[in-house]
Design a protein that fits this description.
about 325 residues; about 35% helix; globular
């Protein structure tokens, strides 16, 4: 892949902080939290940003962040780092918002302005990537949903918008869906996840020239709908052969659009980190940062791809890179 195309691609994970549960990143990607195990003042976001140039923020789905928090994100990351943010659930999952808060008022301009103001520090710093509107599988293509989506995209028309639709009715009427999204400059999110009866059909092609947006959720069909803990849904590790088609898709899409964002959401035990590094490697991109030896113990395919530090802090360089 030519350097010009590589510069258009940003690869990262969905979230950077997973401090608890069986799928925690502590002791895997990050040092353990035990006393003395972490350097004083260790910053997970700053460490993450040494490895990737973008992250998709999921916490904004559950609560609109304080401006001071968003400002700190900008301050703790390099100048060329970008954040894509999931819209608050009030815009895409009103029933979930009602259950959580008891508020059933339809989101309006005031809520849009509040969210925009909260993320403004990223915009001013040149670090705002894309706003993601992720709708639930129950969000069907009918008149009410069409109007809701059109209103939201128009209200946020000054921001790059990506829309994740999962119900088959949207692809059944692909022409109308494309007219809506294309007319408002929104990217149709391409997704990989376990398939269900009414799963949307996708061809992984870009629909707008401005940018392309892909999310890989994993394929843990057994735990997708029935699980004891939500994190179990994302306990899936893509093999190198499973990653390769997405690398080929990114390579092809990169010749058609100005920018690409690819995020790994299979976050359980830093599987997303391992797969994101592999995806960068398969695209012929550098894989920056120092990885802990625990990452290679769990994900041996990283051997020869990443630089590694041991428990003692010494570093060994990667082996000769394998052919792509």
């Amino acid at each position: 892949m030519p350097d010009m195309l590589r510069s258009r691609i940003r690869i990262g994970t969905s979230g950077w902080r997973y401090p608890s549960g069986a799928g925690s990143w502590n002791g895997v990607f990050y040092p353990p939290t035990a006393r003395g195990a972490r350097p004083k003042g260790f910053d997970e976001l700053a460490f993450y940003a040494e490895h990737f140039d973008t992250v998709e923020v999921n916490s904004t789905f559950y609560g609109v962040p304080r401006t001071a928090v968003v400002s700190s994100w900008a301050e703790r990351t390099p100048d060329d780092f970008e954040f894509s943010l999931k819209l608050h659930q009030r815009f895409t999952h009103p029933k979930m918002h009602l259950a959580a808060t008891g508020e059933d008022r339809v989101a309006g301009r005031a809520e849009v302005d509040r969210f925009r103001d909260a993320v403004d520090p990223l915009h001013r710093a040149g670090k705002l990537g894309v706003l993601l509107a992720q709708f639930p599988p129950s969000f069907k293509n009918d008149t009410a949903s069409h109007d809701q989506l059109a209103w939201l995209l128009e209200a946020l028309s000054d921001c790059p918008m990506a829309v994740e639709l999962r119900h088959r009715s949207w692809s059944d009427d692909v022409a109308a869906t494309l007219r809506l999204l294309n007319g408002l400059g929104a990217a149709w999110v391409q997704i990989d996840e376990p398939k269900f009866k009414l799963s949307i059909a996708q061809n992984y092609l870009p629909n707008v020239e401005s940018f392309y947006y892909m999310r890989l959720h994993g394929r843990n069909a057994e735990k997708w709908w029935r699980h004891d803990a939500a994190e179990e849904r994302y306990d899936y590790h893509y093999s190198e052969s499973e990653i390769k088609p997405f690398a080929e898709t990114a390579d092809a899409a990169g010749r058609l659009v100005k920018k690409l964002y690819l995020y790994l959401n299979n976050h359980f035990a830093a599987k997303a980190v391992a797969n994101a590094a592999t995806l960068r490697h398969q695209l012929g991109m550098n894989v920056p940062g120092i990885y802990r030896s625990e990452m290679l113990e769990r994900y041996p395919e990283l051997d020869g791809i990443v630089d590694v530090t041991t428990h003692t802090g010494s570093t060994r360089l990667p082996l000769v890179a394998r052919p792509r």
